[in-house]
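Title: Comparing notes on inverse folding

I've been comparing how different people in this forum approach sequence design from structure. To keep things fair, I'm posting one structure and asking everyone to reply with a full sequence. Here's the target:
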């Protein structure tokens, strides 16, 4: 998300370079380009005009800080305004004592509401709270069964000390539409079950429609009146752009929404919904969905998103992901082995898997300052670790411990077992041997020598750019699986 917007803003700020002072003429010239970029990103027109004018007023006549260039000064101004536009940070969920706290989820059909219910349940579970999730969507076919599968998956996940349970009445689906208040009755009985089970939180997965209509809103208002939920969260699909903002505005006008959850935030969308929805509705964005897994729900931080948009990176989020996914004890053990030159292919594969758990590689690299723009035309093959794993696991235990014994005949056997080419295996072995030698040399070096050796090591590490074919390229990726390649070569034989 935001790649095109980031590129357009970078061009606008570069045009200010070399100016000694920020004047009204050059600021308005730059903001005209910013305005175009925001409109192309599908940001609401009124929001864009107000945002640009606020930036101009902030910048007018401002002297350039001695250590900065005008473009950099303008980046700071726009960053502050972006944070104000999307913020403040408000990911709090109002909890009541005694429980259960009622969280009502609403949104259009297809927005990812049911999946988000599961993610939110996992979020609470991780924090030690007990959660019951009720299926109040009786209209959509198999909605009750779908939610049950999702919640049972969350309950079975070992992550988090809390407990999660499902409540549903699939037999009531037949009555839906024939009698008034069927969904309300399900919600009321779910609340009674949550109280009896002493759950801290009750999440209601209500019905959605393909568009906002009076029938949908009346049903949601009935649930609201009957149960008086403590939190009403609106689930919005970030890929629908201004349609998402307009539907959010309609929901908020009738329901007084407490917060918004943006789904598909990791998708290749223009980002207009994320930049517009808070300003248009007045309701804060509390969470964003960043993937399909149960733990792919993050608190929304406007300053971090603004940093990504302006190419400043998001190192804080990167560190937080690392803290969640990387085992510190294993990382220290690997560092010690690396320093002693005892690092094996088993250790290497373990570290790569650990990094992959943090998320897609391109997404992680995009969080580093200044790197996002460089990755625009670079396609990173996310199956890289799978292919390396196939090669490494096709080796014997002794070969993984001592790669030096892998001769040509062994390479052929390993290639046949992994579906890779012999050249791929050979290149990976050579690169790993070079990396091992460099780590041994680093042990006796000074800090400057270590820095140079680390750069060299990053360049030759297995799977780095220029490593195994198809892992990293500009404009294209190799996505053929090892199994498919192995079958194809079998046919040629």
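Reply #1:
Here's my take.
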């Amino acid at each position: 998300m935001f790649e095109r917007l980031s590129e357009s803003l970078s061009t606008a700020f570069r045009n200010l370079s070399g100016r000694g002072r920020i004047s009204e003429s050059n600021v308005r010239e730059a903001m005209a380009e910013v305005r175009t970029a925001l409109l192309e990103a599908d940001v609401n027109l009124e929001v864009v005009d107000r945002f640009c004018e606020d930036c101009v007023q902030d910048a007018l006549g401002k002297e350039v800080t001695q250590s900065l260039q005008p473009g950099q000064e303008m980046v700071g101004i726009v960053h502050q305004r972006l944070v104000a536009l999307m913020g403040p940070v408000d990911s709090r969920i109002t909890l009541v004592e005694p429980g259960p706290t009622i969280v009502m989820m609403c949104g259009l059909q297809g927005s990812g509401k049911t999946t988000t219910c599961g993610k939110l349940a996992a979020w609470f579970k991780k924090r030690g709270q007990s959660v019951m999730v009720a299926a109040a969507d009786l209209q959509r076919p198999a909605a009750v069964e779908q939610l049950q599968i999702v919640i049972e998956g969350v309950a079975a996940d070992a992550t988090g000390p809390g407990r999660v349970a499902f409540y549903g009445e699939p037999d009531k689906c037949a009555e839906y539409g024939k009698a008034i208040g069927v969904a309300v009755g399900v919600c009321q009985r779910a609340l009674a079950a949550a109280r009896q089970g002493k759950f801290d939180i009750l999440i209601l997965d209500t019905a959605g429609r393909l568009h906002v209509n009076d029938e949908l809103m009346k049903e949601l208002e009935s649930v609201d009146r009957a149960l008086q939920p403590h939190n009403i969260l609106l689930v919005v699909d970030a890929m629908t752009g201004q349609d998402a903002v307009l539907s959010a505005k309609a929901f908020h006008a009738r329901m007084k929404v407490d917060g918004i959850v943006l789904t598909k935030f990791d998708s290749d969308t223009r980002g207009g919904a994320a930049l517009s929805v808070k300003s248009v509705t007045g309701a804060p964005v509390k969470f964003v969905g960043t993937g399909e897994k149960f733990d792919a729900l993050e608190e929304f931080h406007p300053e971090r998103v603004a940093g990504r948009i302006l190419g400043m990176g998001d190192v804080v989020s990167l560190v937080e992901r690392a803290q969640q996914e990387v085992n510190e004890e294993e990382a220290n053990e690997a560092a010690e082995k690396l320093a002693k030159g005892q690092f094996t292919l088993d250790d290497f594969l373990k570290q790569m898997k650990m990094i992959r758990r943090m998320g897609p590689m391109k997404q992680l690299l995009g969080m580093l300052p200044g790197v996002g723009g460089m990755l625009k035309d670079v396609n990173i093959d996310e199956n890289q670790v799978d292919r390396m794993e196939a090669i490494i696991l096709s080796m014997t235990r002794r070969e993984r411990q001592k790669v030096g014994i892998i001769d040509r005949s062994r390479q052929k056997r390993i290639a046949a077992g992994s579906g890779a080419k012999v050249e791929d295996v050979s290149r990976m072995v050579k690169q790993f041997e070079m990396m091992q030698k460099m780590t041994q040399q680093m042990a006796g070096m000074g800090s400057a020598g270590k820095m140079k050796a680390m750069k060299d090591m990053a360049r030759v590490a297995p799977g780095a750019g220029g490593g195994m074919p198809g892992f990293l390229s500009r404009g294209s990726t190799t996505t053929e699986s090892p199994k498919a390649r192995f079958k194809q070569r079998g046919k040629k034989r």
